[in-house]
Specification:
The structure holds two protein chains of two kinds. Helices cover 0% and strands 55% of the residues of chain A. The radius of gyration of chain A is 13 Å and the shape is globular. Chain A starts with a strand and ends with a strand. Chain A has strands spanning 5-7, 10-14, 19-24, 32-37, 44-49, 55-58, 61-65, 71-76, 85-93, 97-100, 104-109. In chain A, strands 2, 4, 5, 9, 10 and 11 form a six-stranded mixed β-sheet that branches. Chain A has a five-stranded antiparallel β-sheet with strand order 1-3-8-7-6, with no helix packed on it. The model of chain A has no long low-confidence stretch (mean pLDDT 95). Chain A is mainly beta. In chain A, a hairpin with a 5-residue loop joins strand 7 and strand 8. Helices cover 0% and strands 49% of the residues of chain B. Chain B contains no helices and eleven strands. Chain B has strands spanning 5-7, 10-13, 19-24, 31-37, 44-50, 53-57, 65-68, 75-79, 88-95, 104-105, 109-113. In chain B, strands 2, 4, 5, 6, 9, 10 and 11 form a seven-stranded mixed β-sheet that branches. Chain B has a four-stranded antiparallel β-sheet with strand order 1-3-8-7, with no helix packed on it. In chain B, strand 4 and strand 5 form a beta hairpin. Chain B starts with a strand and ends with a strand. The model of chain B has no long low-confidence stretch (mean pLDDT 93). The chains are: A mainly beta, B mainly beta. The A-B interface holds A 4, 6, 31, 33, 40-45, 48, 50, 88, 90, 92-103, 105 and B 4, 33, 35, 40-45, 48, 50, 55-56, 58, 91, 93, 99-108.
């Protein structure tokens, strides 16, 4: 059974700090996606990484896919209160199914 | 296009009652997913439709759960004889497929079973 484990589970930081959250698996994924979810809303896709070792940047967010395609990280530079939310990684499992990680709940304090 | 819409947004029911949720996907999307999300967890896959065909269903899904997508447009998820453990957020997502298969999620239906 494929599993995606995220760490840390919770993170509370001050505005302006940097942070990294991790998504790990013992299985190889053909791609991984990162989502952000705000309370009362559905997840919103941030990025998809496909190639081992790939790095993608989205403004202050940097996403990396591990060389072996078993893990990924999300680094946020100079966090802002608007970055607050639940960060989820997800990947395809089988032909149609997607599995999601356990999530990292981030709170950025002003 | 207004995105994926789900109805109702909230549903409170008594244990043993049946409930039905509706999802209207983005119009040109042929793929539709249902997920369940409990507090503090990531979404858990329930089922997948490609057009009107239900191609995958989670083994964790009991016989009390059934989903349909008549004519490949909107979809319904029915839970019969609800139990307190069914309390969760039920999310619907749609996509157009392709290499990255970007899923667009609705805001979800929050179910509370008393």
């Amino acid at each position: 059974t494929q599993l995606l484990e995220q760490s840390p589970q919770f993170l509370s930081i001050q505005e302006g700090e940097n942070l990294t959250v991790y998504c790990n698996s013992s299985s190889v994924f053909s791609s991984l996606q990162w989502y952000r979810q705000e309370p009362g809303e559905g997840p919103v896709l941030l990025v998809t990484v496909v190639t081992g070792g790939e790095v993608k940047k989205l403004k202050r967010l940097t996403f990396q896919f591990g060389d072996a395609r078993k893990d990924s990280s999300l680094h946020i530079t100079a966090a802002q209160p608007g970055d607050t939310g639940l960060y989820l990684c997800a990947g395809p499992s089988g032909t149609y199914k997607y599995i999601f990680g356990t999530g990292t709940r981030l709170k950025v304090l002003a | 296009d207004t995105g994926v819409s789900q109805d109702p947004r909230h549903k409170i029911t008594k244990r043993g009652q049946n409930v039905t949720f509706r999802c209207d996907p983005i119009s040109e999307h042929n793929r539709l997913y249902w997920y369940r999300q409990t507090l503090g967890q990531g979404p858990e896959f329930l089922t997948y439709f490609q057009n009107e065909a239900q191609l995958e269903k989670s083994r964790l899904l009991s016989d009390r759960f059934s989903a349909e997508r008549p004519k490949g447009s909107f979809s319904t998820l029915e839970i019969q004889r609800t139990e307190q453990g069914d309390s969760a957020m039920y999310l619907c997502a749609s996509s157009f497929g392709g290499a990255k298969n970007i899923q667009y999620f609705g805001a979800g239906t929050r179910l509370s079973v008393l």
